[in-house]
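Issue 218. Parser rejects a valid record. Input:
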Amino acid sequence: MANQVRISIDNLKQVVMETLAKVGVSEEHAAIILDTILFANRRGVATHGVGRLPLYVHKIAAGHYNPKNDIEVLADNAAYALLDAKNGFGQVVAYKATKMAIEKAKKYGVAVVGVRNSNNFGTAGYFGDMAAREGCAAMVYANAAPAIAPTGGNKTIFGTNPLCYAYPGDENHDPILLDMATTIAARGKIRLAAKNGEKIPFDWAIGPDGQPTDDPNVALKGSLLPIGGYKGYGLSMFVDIFAGMLTGSHYAGGVKNLSKMDEDSGNGHLFVVIDLDKFMTADEKKERITHFYESVKACGEEGKIFMPGEIEYIKMKKAVETIQISSKQFEDVNAVAKEVGATSRLIEIAE
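Output the parser choked on:
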């Protein structure tokens, strides 16, 4: 395992906010980006946290990332909307889209908001959690750059294509939050392993020669493996259809990696939100979620069964003042802060 560095959350906030300000991101938008970063790092999802800050800064510098976030509303009618991110931060447009979807669902019972011409939005679970905290169920889809080949093929076309399903809890239960890639491992995990000089499991990916590999650098040149074989391929395809083709964004292999500095990414997102109040009373909601939790937990030994997202919520509640990141991410973030003229730096806390 790579060396870990402990830092304070307050310190991280200062560095992220100042660094983003230096590259033209408004305070309002930087606060949203920061919140998504903290959501990921506090939950132990290091691949989608502060380690991506250098990518954002470098892609802005390359002219293929819009720090102004000039979002255009292309359609806004009753229970649906369509937004153009104008190549801005995925987190900012996804936040706006989720807020719109929640407001519309509260009025009409269900809402669908699509986004085109966006970038990677961090962790999908952040937006599912947003809806769940407002008493709504949600489905979130986002397409990504080619990472897997269709079953029977050898050319990558569909991405890791994350999807999220969220359902509200209550005062005694956290939301049920499934946030997953359609591949066995997210590409971010493989990139992080490459950055940290680590090996990966052989069942995560194949190299360009079609053979399983434990070398993350070889894996990134080959194809990631979908979950459940052809079933994962089918899931990835439909995320591409919903998030990309339906919204008018890039699809069928057209999305570019966040790390590709010479082209816009062209990600698409789709947010579906359902207001539970339109389907059941407050008493029914509480009774049903309690019964559901108890029924699932009763399927095995106490303490052995966890709801989707539960382990991450436990981690989040513990990471109130400090988090851990890899030493490589620590170095890279400080390097990019210096590069843009920020005076703040991440500071290691002695264990």
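Fixed in the parser; the record now loads. The mean pLDDT is 95.
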